Amino acid sequence: IGAAAALVEDADGGRVFIHGELCYAWGPDDELARRLAATQLVQIKAATGRAVAAAFSVTTVTLWRWSTTLAEAGAGGLVRERSGPKGPSKLTEAKVVDIRSRREKRESLQVIADATGVSTASVRRTLAAEPAAADEESAVEDTVVEEPGADAAATEADEQPEAGSGDVEPSFSSSRSLDGSAAACHNAKS
Predict the structure, then answer these.
(1) Residue 95 C-alpha from the chain's centroid
(2) Residue 134: which of 97, 103, 169 has the closest Cα?
(3) Distance, CA of 166 to CA of 160 (rounded, Å)
(4) How many Å from the N-terminal Cα to the C-terminal Cα in the chain?
(5) Which of 16, 58, 111, 138 could form a disulfide with 107 if both were Cys (CB 3.0 to 4.6 A apart)?
(6) Is 0.85 topped by the overall pTM?
(7) pLDDT digit string (tens) for 130-168?
(8) Which residues are within 8 A (CB) of 30 and not within 5 positions of it... i.e. 6 or more apart?
């Protein structure tokens, strides 16, 4: 790190030596001790902030933040906060069903979000995700078993409804087709 300090980091964690004496040691998952060692090296002027930041593979801004946090909140403030959602998901199974049923009634994303207490982004993600049970049913329904020697084109022609027969109802519950593409459903009779 400099003339007075040395850093050794490996699979067992890290160690800081000052004038050849072991001063700090931490395990592989002990981020708190690692951050504390970095900030204290600068505090005791064993090395410059720039040299410590480079040795610990962080920016000088990150090192400065750690030092500020240490001064304001103590060593406990150096513990990394959990990333991601801080609590349980608001999207319960009941809300997912409610969101889908409201969208089938052609309600807007904002109206659905206001009614269910979630963001419009959550509504959009919920509608974009196909329900697992429907995917499994669709996969079973879409499976075609051909008889040996049967003409594939004839089999496909037999499965296609005649134009205007009314056998196929358009689905407006999602903007995704069965194959996952984002093609919109259109009703030929509209």
Answers:
(1) 20
(2) 97
(3) 12
(4) 73
(5) 111
(6) no
(7) 665 444 544 444 455 555 554 544 444 445 555 554 555
(8) 13
